[in-house]
């Protein structure tokens, strides 16, 4: 159960503390390995089919390398020093999750908007989105933050939680023989998700070398994205009940079923559709990337304007979702203690 305790400890720490940029970070190390491999293979492979194969090799190497390294930490470091192993695992779990950091970065945009500084708002937004931000007005900036927080709830919080919890369930069912999966699965997920973030684009440069990473990311995020939407709907149902306004929940459910597959990705629209309904507004739409206009359909039927305060509301919604996930973990932990 020590690995499960490390998971819960790191998860709770991320509820309160954002990442420290001064400290080494597992995602930066994963990013470095991806970058090195990409540069190496681009020198060796030039044709489209060769780049497809290179992309497959990048994915395979990173999954094996980071999966083995996580296993090494979980098995070997604990044998060297139990307390060192536990502290290191807690710290790495803390880095795997991104709630506090996501809130911190989104609130930087919020404060810039509230101060009326459009240039600073665009600058802070550019740090968390891939689109061009130079020509966005305040409402467009706010919507972009809302979209990012909604989408990253799945990628940065629920998905690694899902795989750590899945590892815990497997461990419990196997009488803790596979307890190392509690740490290995979310690390492997983080490697896949980072590969998609770095090379999983559809532009000319990355279309072939990033195809394997993009497709695998779609696969590993399939269940977490839908579970994220389900958790959001539970929280929104609670919020709408407290406010005695069931229309909020009905709007969220309607938008979810109507718009969850608007994205080219089968997963990104799951949470964004729920949030579009929650705010009774339209999200997405056309956007510029690297100076090129990309046409996108909007998500949502509502015409309500969003404001900077909606960024705060959405962060509170994700924090409530965090609490639901933690409650699920505590129930699983209680069951495990009873069984074992």
UniProtKB/TrEMBL annotation:
Keywords: Cell membrane, Cobalamin biosynthesis, Membrane, Transmembrane, Transmembrane helix
Subcellular location: Cell membrane
Subcellular location, principal: membrane
Pathway of action: Cofactor biosynthesis; adenosylcobalamin biosynthesis
GO BP terms, alphabetized: cobalamin biosynthetic process
Recorded GO MF terms: ABC-type vitamin B12 transporter activity; threonine-phosphate decarboxylase activity
Bilayer topology: Multi-pass membrane protein
Pfam families: CobD_Cbib
Keyword Transmembrane helix set for record: yes
GO CC entries: plasma membrane
Transmembrane segments: 50-73, 79-98, 219-239, 319-339
InterPro entries recorded: Cobalamin_biosynth_CobD/CbiB
Function: Converts cobyric acid to cobinamide by the addition of aminopropanol on the F carboxylic group.
Family statement: Belongs to the CobD/CbiB family.
Record protein name field: Cobalamin biosynthesis protein CobD
